[in-house]
Design brief:
With 336 residues, the chain is an alpha/beta fold. 33% of the residues lie in helices and 22% in strands. The protein has ten helices and 13 strands. Strand 9 and strand 10 form a beta hairpin. The relative contact order is 0.18.
Length: 336
């Protein structure tokens, strides 16, 4: 039996693993800046495992950007590649490309009891959609559905690039300052690593304060250490995230619940719990009761995108002798 490769490639890092016996192993992380493209990174990964071209028959790559056609260009990095060229270069028989947040959403179906935290308690409706959203290098947004065939369907989209929702006069003033330096003020303009820095600078400019902090990590650290300016910015970040989540819940009828994923929020979990996120999520005028009792979970699993790529691979090629049959859809957190 040949092996299956899974990859989760974002703007900063490319993660690869072997998917075998319904689980990941041999996970490696590569900086995208160190390689000209994914073929070269995968080639090094396989060499590290003493594998040759052709030892892997199937692959699923979760990629940051819209997936369509043979050519793919990453949204937040210079990497680009051809599906046909990738398969030819590495002697792979079948390549499945999925949006990175399609994989992230599918990864939520395999969370262990110790791989998520409850942010907002409630009881979701498992027959309704789930929202999966994750601030990181960019802002990923996905939708998860449980299908009648006992599998999961993750709907791809580019929800991180919707317009940033404004709910207060101060937010309108912040938007004006962001608009001065950004052609399009999207949710991702604020709800990402670079976005937190954008928000900090705009806030300092609005309040006529010198912007002393130079990185998202420095802003988060200062906020957690009690710096009033940084804490106010991080609070505004959480509020904007709540507004975006609430918009998605209303649009999709996502009464299953909400997963917060990505690399940012787990760095300030307690701050996030006590922030205005839940309030902002529910501030929807005549529909303000819609989100009441909606459960929100924070995914803390190390490699949910890779796991989701494995689930996608199983569901696409489950009859292949290189890929085992997909597992039945299980209950998600809060649904048992």
């Amino acid at each position: 039996m040949k092996l299956a490769l899974v990859g989760d490639i974002g703007g900063t890092n490319a993660r690869f693993a072997i998917w075998e016996d319904d689980r990941l192993h041999s996970v490696r992380v590569f900086a995208t800046a160190d390689y000209p493209g994914p073929e070269q990174a995968v080639e090094v990964y396989l060499q590290d495992l003493d594998l040759q071209r052709g030892d892997v028959s199937h692959a699923c790559l979760a990629v940051a950007g819209p997936v369509d056609g043979d050519e793919f260009q990453f949204t937040n990095s210079a990497w680009h590649f051809s599906r046909a060229g990738f398969c030819s270069h590495l002697n792979i028989e079948q390549l499945l490309l999925v949006n990175d947040f399609t994989a992230m959403a599918l990864g939520m179906t395999r969370l262990g009891d110790d791989e998520y935290l409850t942010i907002c308690h409630g009881k979701g409706k498992p027959e309704r959609p789930f929202v999966v959203i994750g601030p990181g290098t960019g802002l990923g947004v996905g939708t998860l559905l449980k299908t009648g065939s006992g599998r999961w369907m993750a709907l791809p989209g580019e929800g991180g690039h919707v317009n940033l929702p404004i709910g207060t006069a101060r937010e309108a003033l912040l938007w004006t300052r962001l608009m001065a330096t950004h052609e399009h003020v999207s949710a991702e303009t604020v709800l990402s690593g670079a976005g937190l820095l954008n928000l900090y600078r705009a806030s300092c400019e609005l309040d006529a304060i010198e912007a002393q902090l130079k990185s998202p990590a420095a802003i988060t650290k200062a906020a957690l250490e009690g710096d009033a300016v940084a804490a106010a910015v991080l609070e505004q970040f959480c509020v904007f995230l709540g507004r975006v989540v609430g918009n998605n819940v209303l649009t999709l009828g996502a009464l299953g619940g909400v997963y917060i994923a990505g690399g940012m929020v787990p760095r300030f979990t307690e701050f996030f719990r006590n922030s205005g996120f839940q309030r902002a999520m529910g501030e929807k005028g005549v529909m303000s009761d819609y989100c009441k009792g909606l459960p929100v979970w924070l995914a803390t699993a190390e490699y949910p995108g890779l796991t989701g790529a494995g689930v996608a691979l199983q569901q696409a090629f489950g009859d292949s002798d290189a890929i085992e049959r997909p597992a039945e859809a299980a209950d998600l957190p809060g649904q048992a």
